[in-house]
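Hi everyone,

Forwarding the result from last night's run.
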Amino acid sequence: MSDPGYVDLQVNGYAGIDFNDPALTTDMVHEAAGRLRADGTTTVLATVITAPTDEMVARIRTIARARDEERSTRSTIAGIHVEGPFLSDRDGYVGAHPRDNVCDANLSEAERLIDAGGGAVRLFTLAPERDARGAVTRHLVDRGLVVAAGHTDATVENLRACIDSGLSLFTHLGNGCPMQMHRHDNIIWRALALRDHLRYGLIADGVHLPPTMLRAIIDLVGIDRCFVVTDAIAAAGLGPGTYTLGRQRVTVDTDRVVWSEDRTHFVGSASTMAQCAGVLCTAGFRDDETDALVRRNPAAIVA
C-alpha cells in the first residue's frame, strides 16, 4: 500500500511561497503545492491570516482559482483555512496577526471571506470572546465549515457558547497566547477542561511546544482528539534567512526558530511535516501514534 502522505491543516506558505503575499499568483500556489507533494505532504489547508478584508479576499480568490486551474493543486490543497480577523487584540494573544485588522466577529465580513473561496474555505479560526453568543460560529457551521477557537483569551463561558453553536476545534493549543499567564486560570487549562467537546491542533516542531508539554497534552486529551500542524511559512523546506508572512519580515535562525522583526514572538514555523514527525518520534510516540497525529486524525477533519 502506498504512503498516504502527511495531512497539514495549517500551511501559511512553503518553499519560498507565501500564501499571504500581496502579490500571490496562481503559479506560485501551484509551485508550493508541488513542493509540498515532493516533501511527502499530500493534503493541506492553505492558510490565509488576518489582513485588511480586501487583501484577504484577494488571497482566498487566488488560491481558489489555482485549485480550479490544476487538478494536482486541487488534490494537494484540499481547501482554505481562514485564521482571523475575528481574533483577540490583546498582547500575546494576537500573535503575528496585525492588531489594526482584528475585529469583532460579524456576518457580513464572514460572508465576504467565505464567498471569495467559492466553496474552498473549509476551516475558520476565531476567538470566541469576539463572537457574541456564538452567532457567527453557528452561521459558519451551518454553511458547512469547521470552526476552531484560536488567538483567544476566552472564558469557559465564551468557549461553551461557541461549542453550543458548533465550534469543535482549537487551533495550535499552547501558542497564540502570552509567554507568561496566570498559572491556574489561563486559556490552555480552560480549553483542556472542555476536552470532551474539542479536538486540538498542536505545532510539533520542537520549538512552539516543549516535547514534555506536547506529550502531557496528548496523554491528557487522548490521541484521537489531537492532530499535528506545522503552521509553516514560506521558510519551510528551505533554511535560515529572511522571509515574509504577508507584509511582515521575519528571520529564521539555524535552529529553525522563526522570529518577528523585533524578536519578541514567533511567526509561524520553518519546519516541514516530516520534521514534525521526527520530533514526535524523539518525544517517544510510537509509529502508529505518529501516524494518527500527522495523517489519520487531520484527514478525518477535512474528509
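The two ends are 20 Å apart (CA to CA).

Cheers,
N.
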